[in-house]
Design goal:
The protein is an alpha/beta fold. It is 42% helix and 18% strand.
Amino acid sequence: MTVVVLPGDGIGPEIMREARRALEALVSLDLVEMPFGASAIRSHGNPLPDETLAACRAAEAVLKAPVGDPEFDAADVRPEQGIIRLRQELDVYANLRPAWQGEIDLVIVRELVGGLYYGARGVREDGTVFDTCEYHPRQVERVARRAFELARLRRGRVTSVDKANVMETSRMWRRVVTEVVGDYPGVELEHMLADNAAMQLVERPERFDVMVMENTFGDILSDLAAAVTGGLGLAPSASLGDSGPGIFEPVHGSAPDIAGQGIANPAAMVRTAALMLEHGLGRPEEGRRLTDAVERALVEAPTPDLGGPATTREFGDAVLRAL
């Protein structure tokens, strides 16, 4: 099986190295590294070169480290534009972001290729700036089905998050989700306004099983869920479509302030590799083994962000020992 590896920017290459070591210890894969992000802008003038996109289309999965570089923060061409376009090109509309710690065990299913990030935007003559949130009912239906199917494999509860008291897109979202749940007997559905969902994630995160929401709410609330379960340094994600390869990436950013110091926490990147094994390559047993190995490494070799002394490499060594 071929996996395209996008090593990313900042700490990306460092944490990707540890994910690759773990994968190579578990399974036989053809790992093909391609240019992407800031390095691709420097070499190709484009964060997503044509050859990288073609390789991603032909692969079984895409394993991506975080991108972003201060050099391009105010530029017209930025590394982040590459991942937004790649998600759209591969139509990976369902972003799964699990968060767990102690009694907390939830998954946020974020719609990934619609809403504000892809709607019309611009500047009017009077100086007004606008971004448009748009959704078609089909987009809502398919991500809702993904959430209900996932809930069937878990505890059978789905919380659909919206702002139906304010937004027309949310009223349509709520109507479609309510219609779709009829095809999933045994799955319990509740609707919750986004502001209440944020409060409940802080006060009672253990009450949630599967949460489904549009792009912007998912971006914000998944970071909040990560924060209450240990921080962004532990948070993986899987972006899936109906066909073709998925994109697997940690939730956190490229952390250029600590790049090259060997102290970055690779847990989220390695957990992401485990999600890829389970959801992208049909290897759930190996995925569970890798997830368990990360749990042991977090105890045996915590990195400085977790209050420990371990380097990035030493954390990776602990994962390999656990495997």
